[in-house]
Amino acid sequence: MSDSREWLPAAFWVVGAITLFRIAALWFDRTDLFVDESQYWLWGQNLDFGYYSKPPLIGWVIRAVTELAGSDAAFWVRLPGAVFHAATALILGALAAQISGGRVAVWVAAAYITLPFVALGSLLISTDTIMAPFFAAALLFHFRAVETRRAGEAALAGLCIGLAFLAKYAAVYFLLGAALAAVTAPEARLSARQWLAMLAAFALTIAPNVIWNLTHDLTTVEHTMDNVGWVRGGSAFAGLNPAGLAEFFFAQFAVFGPVLFGALLWGWLRGGVSARAALTAFSLPPLVIVCGQALMSRAYANWAVATYFTGLLIAVPLLLNRARRLLWASFAVNGAICLVLPVLTVLAPWPVVRGEPLLARYIGQSQLSGEIIAAAKEAGVATVVAADRGVLADLFYTGRDSGLAFRVPQSGGRADSYYEQTYPLPAGAGQVLYVGGTAPVCGAVAAQPQITFGTEGGTYSGRALAGYLVDGDCLDVAQ
Hints:
This protein is of the alpha/beta class. Helices cover 62% and strands 6% of the residues.
């Protein structure tokens, strides 16, 4: 295996050029923060070792970047996405150079930075994006540890996968991959001493989040079980969802790119060289497991992205050596997506399709929040209450300097969101502005709307949202 670094300048220029283009597009981006992005920003305002639905690293990263920039503008909230994916591309290039040589490394770095899920993840900040460079670094140190037999590099792999775990729990797929690689590709097997070093480093890194969960009623674990669905619902085989499985599986052609995903399936079926066996051990299990989840309940298209860090190192060499025209076709398809997505964010709300902006899901949040904040101030109330997570998420972000308090009605049971957990409406709050689609009932009388908010042409298009001046104590769990 070659450790040549001659590939690095070429890869750096390709990755750097695309990343600079994405950062420039971010500067002119006209979309609003999505509900998850606003929530991650809010986490960063309340630094902790864990949060309701995810581990803490994304909140820490956003807080660090916005503090350094001195600004909470959407550009700075999203900036880590493009930078983290650029780092991941170069780390995977280094891994490809070690396994397959410098020539393959350039292609791998270029292929990663143009992947569809990377193009989207460079525009919208997500936990997958924050996980990516640490997962890739863990792979690099693991394969180096296999060659050098050093416990120190195994410990670095454990540290990196621990950091990846603090971004998203899906990082645990790495440990499963390492164990399977030891069985299916003995030449990729770590020694007992290296395993001990890796697991110890991993355990120490994730310990703060584990302790946080243990002292907070296993909040994030409970939410993860809710997402899995069938864990709560009795038999895993009752009400199977083959349509959901098909939808998830075929969505992977869009996530990874149609040519590369086809090449990855081909590589798994061919088997062959020992390096491919080790890479298969890391890449195949996440996809198989999430396919099982999709069959038993549901699965989002991005839940198997851990497949593609090593999957890329199977697909690219295979196409490079046996079907180079298809590799170029892949760059044409993925490259077009890589170009179009940033341009669409700059042109939003254009184009309009069937009377609605194409990116309607990502616009209109800040406009609605502005109307709600103005209505609250005109009414002279200090608190805005909403049950809708999306409305709340943007109110906290857009209204960060408004002087208003934003709250959610008491749930009366286990919190169903970060907002219910952290910002429930206290008793005796007095008069509040309640925002919702249904009138709250106070003293057996439905409240009358004080204002109807405009929701056309954005994420809330087609929904009727109004503001109601009510006493906070009448907002029970039914609202």
